[in-house]
Amino acid sequence: MSSQETTLVVGAGHAGAELVAALRQQQYSGRIILVGDEPQLPYRRPPLSKAYLSGEVDRDSLLIRSAAAYDALQVECLTGVAVRAIDRPGHRVLLDDGRYLEYSKLVLATGGRPRRLADPAADKPNVHYIRTLADIDRLRHDLAFARRLLVIGGGYIGLEAAAVGVKHGLQVTVLEAAPRLLARVAAPEISAFFERAHRARGVDVRTGVSVETFSGTERVESVRLSDGDQLPVDLIIVGVGILPNVELALEAGLEVDNGIVVDSHAQTSVDPDILAIGDCAKHLNGFLCKFVRIESVPSAQEQAKTAAATLCGRFVPHTAVPWFWSDQFNLKLQMVGMSEGYDQLVLRGDPANESFSAFYLRDGVVLSVDAINRPQDFMVAKRLVAERIKVEPHQLADESVPLKSLLSSV
Ligand code: FAD
Question: Model pTM?
Answer without folding.
Answer: 0.96
